[in-house]
Design goal:
Helix content is 16%, strand content 22%. By secondary structure, it is α/β, with parallel strands linked by helices.
Length: 158
């Protein structure tokens, strides 16, 4: 069983799961066994978060320590069997390792940070169906053009 800690480039607890620079993985004896770099930390959407979850599972991680996490990501992590704990942001990694930092167990998705975007707006399809946007002027809807009463647009005669 391994423990992963979401960290900043300065090896402090990262403020958010998906935006962490890397995840430092420790074994039961507290020895660092890996550092997983978060390649998609500036990406929008859930794809890179799902890849992080797979990488953590491949390193036999059972416990994740982080500063904060979104509700959907937390639900996904808890559903996959991870134990997730919130630790104060910017806590030095060494303080976390020796037990100086408080740990708050996150047991339900509602304890995560609400999504800032509308459901599904992240582009990954994780939310509900997207609403149909109204047609813009000059656009066609379903191939039908409605130009009644227009005779001239931007210098072009119709």
């Amino acid at each position: 069983m391994s423990v992963a800690i979401a960290v900043t480039p300065n090896h402090e607890v990262a403020g958010h799961f998906g935006k962490a620079a890397s995840f430092v993985v420790f074994d039961d004896q507290g020895q660092q066994i890996a550092e997983l770099v978060n390649q998609g930390r500036k990406a929008v959407g859930c794809k890179h978060k799902k890849q992080l979850q797979a990488q953590l599972a491949a390193h036999n991680v059972k416990t994740i320590l982080l500063g904060n996490v979104g509700q959907r990501s937390l639900a996904r992590l808890l559903g996959a069997g991870f134990e997730v704990f919130r630790v104060p942001n910017r806590t030095p990694l060494q303080d976390v390792l020796v037990g100086k930092a408080s740990r708050e167990p996150l047991l339900s998705a509602e304890q995560g940070r609400p999504c800032k975007r509308e459901k599904g707006a992240c582009g990954c399809g994780c939310g509900s169906k997207k609403t149909v946007k109204p047609a813009k002027i000059g656009m066609t809807v379903s191939g039908n053009t409605n130009l009644q009463g227009l005779t001239k647009i931007g210098g072009f005669k119709l």
